[in-house]
Design brief:
The complex is a heterodimer of chains A (about 650) and B (about 300). Chain A is built from 13 helices and 26 strands. Chain A is α+β, with helices and mostly antiparallel strands. In chain A, the strands form six sheets. In chain A, strands 2, 5, 6, 8, 9 and 10 form a six-stranded mixed beta sheet that branches. A five-stranded mixed beta sheet of chain A has the order 19-26-25-22-23, with no helix packed on it. In chain A, strands 1, 3, 4 and 7 form a four-stranded antiparallel beta sheet that branches. Chain B has about 300 residues and is α/β, with parallel strands linked by helices. Classes of the chains: A alpha+beta (about 650), B alpha/beta (about 300). Chains A and B meet through helix 1, helix 4 and helix 8 of A and helix 1, strand 6, strand 7, helix 7 and helix 8 of B.
């Protein structure tokens, strides 16, 4: 039988485990790898081939892209020896980009100037271009040599190089050839422009422009009148457009335009532009230089023979009063929650209206703008998704009148969690069959928050309520019955503030739960086996109720002794034992070890008369079998068995 | 013991043994919250306080300040898409992290122009050991990439049809999309900076697209930049950061565990608990019942 069991057991278990294997060892279908298993390899050839992208961008005159690519070539982690080569090669590329870009810019500007008939102004640019072309030729040659050397080192130029590498190597070499062609194109353009410039110089009539200002120093915001003359070979040029420009910032700014009168003279008013500075207590005012120029550009078609001209620069001193900006920013600010930035503009230059701009961190565009005089209060909207961190605001106050412009940086601490507080009242111990009752009060800072949405989640149920005018709320949630008897389960409370505040606040509150059903279940599981064990003990340990009186020791006998007598006496005892079982089962009266047969007979008054008489006779026979010296015969044994049968029949089935 | 009793007992033991094995065997499934191997999200969830959710129907009713990370490897039911849309419209943040899954289906439903290109983004130069692990080094100033110096992606793709002001992060100039899957750049294949993270507004909420779902797995989230990104993500989610587990790649182990969990869940219901109690009662008290035949033997006559 054991072999049969093993024969069945082993294949069944193996089969079961085999069925489980696909479950446990299913291959991943997601396209990703364990990064710790990916070995680092430096593909030098592939690295070199990346430079074709740089040369490609230079050839397309996309210099910023090329610069970015070189910058990114510094990023990869490379072995030290290769790092040196790559750094040197990158430096060569940077030089090449700078030279080609400068050359391109010089020739483009020279082209514009010649087109606008500023041939004189084009001369230095063309000279610069010539020097830059020499540099470009030198750097290109060096890069070409370095590339070929590195290609030999990495095996790229060898015949045995992999096909995909050969293709890309050819592309790299083509890019270098195109670079040389580009340099050659620049050389041709430079020569062409030089010839055009010389031609213009020979063909065009030169013009002369002057600019005069009434004084050498002014205050910013002053309105001044500038004058000048436009002439050509001593002849006044009338009805020509003159522009007054200043180039003291990043680019030329046209401050005013004027047309010349019949005498070639022009007059126009300009406002001295404002200046920017930081505020210093010990400085009453600042002075900064400003360069003014007058510019004449012939209109194509109107003045085919006139050359353009520009006046000699006129430098003036511009004085201005510094501006102090006092600001008050809230200590804590929340994403998406507007706040007011209060401030005051203080300057000896007056309190004329000026523009205020507020920039957040390094952003280019302001998050708030407003015109203000003196004190101001600007509502600032913080971006809803700004990180909870320390940021800074830059506040610009533009120049106005004699007051200079200024800027101030101010720290801004962004917090994610609104100062929402919830006081919760809930029973610490919840009996699961009852619904969970919860109440509380919501505060914003120290003030109750009315009409706030409160969502309470517990187990699998949720309830949404709104707070009353005093911020209080009450809710009741149904409970579900689980397996656990006693456990902790957190209530999740989410508060949605009122007033358009975009942030929710979430908190949890612990609650201990008792499950009476599972507790009862557990008690039953523990008590039932105990009951059963007790029952079994009682069955195997007979006793007389009421307790038996004392008897002589030699007349006492155990039920076990009754069962082990040999011969006819044994048959009589067995008959008695069967009757005894029937009486015990039917009356609940048990025979304990020290009880004599007569005592037990006396205690069995509850059995019916039809069973009592045969049991009395049976008891006497059994006593004789146990204690009498005379031998008992088979008749006595048969009689005892008949008496026992009558007792059993009577007790089990009763009298029909 | 009779043979039929033995076979019955054997079947019971086998079923219980297999159930225990399946229940306790550690998960090795991708992105699973209970998997603490390299491809799981257990350690990430433990550190970032992300809560796994098994259904999109359980998204918070007050989604302001709440974020759900969706890794869409299986298809969506219309009700699920509507649930996601409602979550975003009411002010929630959806982080849709996908490479070759069903992210475009979500974007289409939400009415966004943006798409996942579903082509492999390789970077032969700026990478972490392999071109399949591109380093992302270009960021616009944004709450999500605040103090992030670089990200490392793992078998990523790129985003398409993204407006310039929506871009948050881009791959390096050396990256390219390997359209023909030969792991080399070929003429005609897109090259240069590719958008890989973008932000889009919808209703009161926002959608953040990440062209790689693998940055959330344990082995990738250990990398400093990736970790900072996740910290920032947690920082904008004071009302809860959730990771949807209902659209992860299906697996037999997970299905088996789900079946066991469903059985367990059934038994925790009142009816199931009642049945269990009745069964336990019956098994416990049956021997007592069997050993007391005489108590009812006496006839009343």
């Amino acid at each position: 039988m054991k072999k049969v069991i093993l024969f069945i057991l082993i294949p069944v278990l193996l089969g079961g485990l085999l069925l489980t294997l696909p479950v446990l060892a299913q291959p991943s279908r997601v396209p990703h790898e364990n990064p710790s298993r990916v070995s680092a390899t430096t593909d030098t050839a592939a690295l070199l081939l990346q430079y074709s992208n740089i040369f490609y961008n230079i050839n397309r005159k996309e210099y910023n892209n090329a610069r970015n690519l070189v910058g990114e070539m510094s990023q990869p982690e490379l072995p030290a020896d290769l790092r040196y080569l790559v750094d040197q090669y990158n430096e060569l590329c940077r030089q090449l980009i700078h030279v080609i870009n400068s050359l391109d810019a010089a020739l483009t500007e020279a082209t514009r100037l010649i087109e606008e008939k500023h041939s004189d102004a084009a001369i230095p640019l063309l000279a610069d271009a010539e020097v830059l072309m020499e540099d470009a030729g030198m750097v290109t040659t060096e890069i070409d040599a370095a590339t070929q050397q590195m290609a030999r080192m990495t095996g790229l130029s060898a015949d045995a190089a992999p096909a995909q590498y050969k293709e890309r190597y050819d592309r790299l070499m083509n890019s270098l050839q195109q670079l040389k062609r580009l340099t050659e194109e620049f050389r041709i353009l430079q020569q062409t422009l030089l010839q055009s410039q010389l031609k213009q110089q020979a063909e065009l009539v030169p013009t002369r422009l002057t600019l005069a200002v009434p004084d050498a120093s002014f205050f910013s915001g002053d309105n001044i009148t500038v004058t000048g003359l436009l002439s050509s070979n001593g002849r006044a040029l009338a009805n020509r457009r003159i522009a007054i420009i200043t180039d003291n910032i990043t680019d030329n700014i046209t401050l005013a335009t004027a047309d010349t009168d019949p005498n070639g003279a022009y007059t126009t008013d300009i406002i001295i532009p404002g200046k920017w500075s930081q505020y210093y207590n010990d400085r009453e005012h600042f002075t900064a230089p400003l360069v003014l120029r007058a510019n004449f550009t012939p209109v194509p078609g109107n003045d085919p023979n006139l050359s353009a001209s520009e006046s000699p620069p006129v430098s003036i001193d511009v004085s201005f009063y510094p501006t102090r900006l006092d600001l008050s920013v809230p200590d804590n600010v929340y994403p998406g929650v507007p706040f007011f930035l209060n401030g005051q503009i203080i300057s000896r230059g007056g309190t004329s209206e000026r523009g205020i701009q507020i920039l957040l961190d390094d952003n280019e565009y302001p998050i708030a703008t407003q015109n203000a005089t003196g004190s101001f209060s600007i509502e600032v909207n913080t971006p809803p998704q700004i990180s909870a961190d320390e940021h800074y605001l830059t506040i610009f106050a533009e120049p106005a009148g004699r007051s200079g412009g200024t800027s101030v940086k101010q720290k801004l601490l962004i917090l994610r969690q609104l100062p929402v507080r919830v006081d919760i009242q809930v029973a610490p111990l919840v009996v699961l069959s009852r619904p969970l009752s919860i109440s509380g009060q919501v505060y914003y800072g120290n003030q109750p928050m009315p009409d706030a949405g409160v969502m309470i989640q517990w187990q699998n149920s949720a309830s949404i309520v709104n707070t009353d005018h005093d911020g209080t709320f009450t809710a009741s949630l149904p409970t579900s019955i689980g397996i656990s008897i006693f456990y902790r389960q957190d209530i999740e409370i989410t508060v949605q503030p009122t007033g358009g505040l975009p942030l929710s606040t979430r908190l949890t509150h612990p609650v201990f739960t008792v499950n009476p059903l599972t507790l009862f279940f557990l008690l039953v599981l523990i008590i039932a086996p105990l009951l059963r064990a007790r029952r079994t003990r009682r069955l195997s340990a007979p006793q007389i109720i009421p307790a038996a009186t004392s008897m002589p020791a030699h007349l006492s006998i155990t039920p076990a002794e009754i069962a082990v007598k040999p011969g006819f006496a044994g048959r009589i005892c067995a008959a008695y034992r069967n009757s005894l079982r029937a009486i015990e089962a039917s009356t609940g009266t048990f025979m304990s070890p020290p009880t004599t047969l007569q005592e037990f007979l006396g205690a069995t008054t509850a059995i019916p008369a039809p069973a009592s008489q045969p049991f009395t006779a049976l008891t006497n026979l059994t006593e004789a079998a146990l204690y009498s010296a005379c031998e008992l015969d088979e008749d006595a044994a048969v009689r005892a068995e008949k008496l026992a049968s009558v007792v059993q029949k009577e007790l089990y089935h009763g009298t029909p | 013991m009779a043979l039929h009793k033995f076979l019955l007992l054997l079947a019971l033991v086998l079923v219980l043994t297999l159930a225990v094995v399946v229940w306790f065997v550690p998960s090795n499934e991708d992105f699973r919250a209970e998997n603490d191997y390299w491809n799981g999200t257990a350690s990430l969830l433990a550190e970032s306080g992300i809560q796994p959710v098994d259904s999109l129907s359980g998204l918070p009713d007050f989604p302001n300040g709440a974020t759900i990370i969706l890794i869409p490897y299986t298809d969506f039911q219309p009700a699920e898409l509507e649930s996601v849309k409602g979550f975003i419209s009411r002010g929630g943040t959806l982080v849709l992290a996908d490479d070759y899954g069903n992210g475009n289906r979500v974007l289409e439903y939400l009415g966004l122009k943006a798409r996942f290109s579903r082509q492999a983004l390789l970077d032969p130069l700026s990478n972490y050991n392999s071109q399949w692990f591109p380093r992302i080094i270009h960021f616009t100033d944004n709450f999500l990439t605040h103090q992030v110096e670089e990200l490392v992606f793992n078998h990523a793709t790129s985003l398409a049809d993204i407006a310039s002001d929506e871009i948050i992060a881009q791959s390096s100039m050396f990256s390219f999309l390997d359209a023909n899957n030969n792991q080399n750049w070929d003429e005609g294949e897109a090259t240069g900076r590719m958008p890989v993270i973008s932000r889009h507004s919808l209703g009161k909420g926002q959608i953040i697209l990440i062209a790689d779902a693998s940055i959330f797995i344990n082995s990738m989230s250990e990398m400093p930049g990736n970790r900072r990104l996740l910290t920032n993500l947690a920082g904008i989610s004071p009302a809860g950061l959730y990771l949807d587990q209902s659209h992860l790649p299906p697996s037999n182990l997970h299905q088996a565990k789900n079946t066991l969990a469903a059985t367990r869940s059934l038994l925790t219901k009142p009816l199931g608990l009642l049945l269990l109690m009745v069964l336990a009662f019956a098994l416990t008290l049956f021997p007592l019942w069997h050993h007391r035949p005489l108590s009812r033997e006496r006839s009343p006559s």
